[in-house]
Predict the structure.
Amino acid sequence: MQATRERVLAALDEGPVTGPDLADRLDVSRSAVWKHVEALREAGFGIDSTDDGYVLSSVPEFGGPAVEYGLDAPFEVEYHDSIPSTNARGRELATAGESDVVVLADEQTGGRGRLDREWDSPSGGVWLSLVLRPDLPPTQIPVYTLAAAVSVATAAREAGVDATIKWPNDVLVETAAGDRKLCGILTEMEGEADRVSWVVVGIGVNVNVASEELPPEGTSVQEQVGAVDRRAFTQRLLETFDDLRADPHGVLDEWRAYAGTLGKQVRVETPGGAVEGEAVDVEFPGTLLVETEDGIVRVTAGDCEHLRPA
Ligand code: BT5
């Protein structure tokens, strides 16, 4: 959000404050104050005009300005009611040189998972893509997928959902009927051998979505605990991600704390064939260690299945 607009909002939040007072405080003209107030009303903020001046009475439920307002992380939010895919839009912005932008949508009409699988994205979810330009070699980017999973698990647990992480990119709820997927993550990047030019971390969370709108293997925050404040959920997710990216090596401990995969029998389909055994640990930047009959195998990529204990 534009810096002056943010200061106008902060002043209104502490208000009432008169137009002339606000103009003085922010060192702008009275007509500029009026324009900011109108733009904020247009964006859905409730601003009452009282005898003592303007006062902030409500914040929009969801959307770009709503998520940016009070967000303790340096992301700009580009919001769409409906878009084919936030990752596709994120790639466009990344290619155009943008950074620290979040593309956020209420609904996607062409959401994608890994290997071009379809990702159902009905209205009510949190479908977002982080556009980043980290100073990291491409080999370390898997840690961003782990950081995204930890961020979602943190926000989901704070909302009361018993979420766990399945290596490498799913956040699940483990139920008696089996694992149900709450979130999927799709990380895409471009770069040279030793330096990334951009990364787009796509995160899809089934938040206020009815279970009938999801595939049978999916679940939502709404199904687990009822509908929640999507604005607060998104802010928590983004703030956690911002903290984690400051210390990539520190991500692993957080990931282990939420991991449902560790200690389980797993089968991972890798490009080089299937690996089966007990998942015993994860190593930087996101390598899974599987104890097989032939010893420890390190897996860097693949589809992981949690097997029932023999
Ligand atoms: C993923 O792929 O889990 C990554 C999904 C990433 C989606 C986000 S949303 C924002 C951004 N924009 C995009 O276009 N994408 C990203 P994968 O591991 O391949 O899992 C895909 C599989 O999950 C599908 O084949 C279905 O079986 C299942 N699935 C599809 N939609 C689902 C949903 N909403 N909830 C749970 N499972 C779903």
Remarks:
- Residues 64-258 form a domain with the BirA Bifunctional Protein; domain 2 fold (CATH 3.30.930.10).
- The pocket of biotinyl-5-AMP is lined by residues 85-87, 108, 111-115, 117, 119-121, 127-129, 169-170, 181, 184-186, 202-204, 206, 214-215, 217-218 (CB under 6 Å).
- The mean pLDDT is 95.
